[in-house]
Amino acid sequence: MSADKPHIRVENLTMAYGDFVIQRNLNFTIQRGDIFTIMGGSGCGKSTLMKIMIGLKTPATGEVFYNGEPFWSGSAERRERYKRRFGTLFQAGALWSSMTLAENVSVALDQYTELSESEIRDIALYKLSLVGLAGFEDYYPSEISGGMRKRAGLARAMALDPEILFFDEPSAGLDPINAKLLDDLILELRDTLETTVVVVNHELPSIFATSNNSVFLDAETKTQLATGDPKRLRDHDPHHTVRNFLARGTIDAEAKTL
Q1: pTM higher than 0.85 for the full model?
Q2: Measuring CA to CA, how many Å separate 250 from each of 132, 148, 198, 253, 255?
Q3: Where are the domains of the chain?
Q4: Residues 65/45/51/184 CA torsion (nearest 10 deg)
Q5: Contact 157, 89 (CB under 8 A)
Q6: In Å, how far are 45, 150, 188 from 131, measured between CA atoms?
Q7: Of 154, 51, 169, which is closest to residue 104 (Cα–Cα)?
Q8: If you classify domain 1-85+164-178+194-229 with CATH, what class do you get?
Q9: At the N or C end, where does the chain have fewer CB atoms within 10 A?
Q10: What are phi and psi for residue 84, nearest 5 degrees?
Q11: pLDDT tens digits, residue range 188-210?
């Protein structure tokens, strides 16, 4: 699913809170249709990187390009236009508890389109059906399971037919069966809707099942150590830290037994 130019390019990016640098000199590309994983150990800045990519946090230096156009050095108006091309699923689903699932999905449609109430309702029901929630449109978040809330959050993220979906730890808090169902759904949506997907993830089964591209952030060196297909990085990356992370620490464990 390659294109003449990357769908997303991160160039010389440094992330910081005041004088405290989290990551520096990040450089990677994401092709249209990739499922791209931001991975690394705890505290390395995975969620902060996603916040910068979706416009919630300003980078200290560097730039994010979408379809070759700069995101942060452009006007605030252009950033807002780009944000409407994004769909975001936050870690806890972030559904409005006082709204039904259909009403949650309808929020962006009501805010950013001039569709009628019945047209918005029809689209909301369609998006819920895509994630396997047909018949649950009038349920409230408290009335459904955690896995169903994640899927409802995904339906809401897809409300405006985004070019790019951003997921922050989509499998967090899910049992293995529901986690696999969500992985399968992400793959299906990528294949049927040709959407580029960017995922913050530390769940290795999910990473290997879905991702074809990635960046590995290292908390100790405060920069990226690798980028590319996670399976290739696990088997062939020159950095021990990367291979050991992707092998569940078995490389270090084996070394201790020798």
Answers
A1: yes
A2: 37, 34, 27, 5, 8
A3: 1-85+164-178+194-229, 94-161
A4: 90
A5: yes
A6: 29, 10, 10
A7: 154
A8: alpha beta
A9: C
A10: -70, -10
A11: 888 888 899 999 998 999 999 99
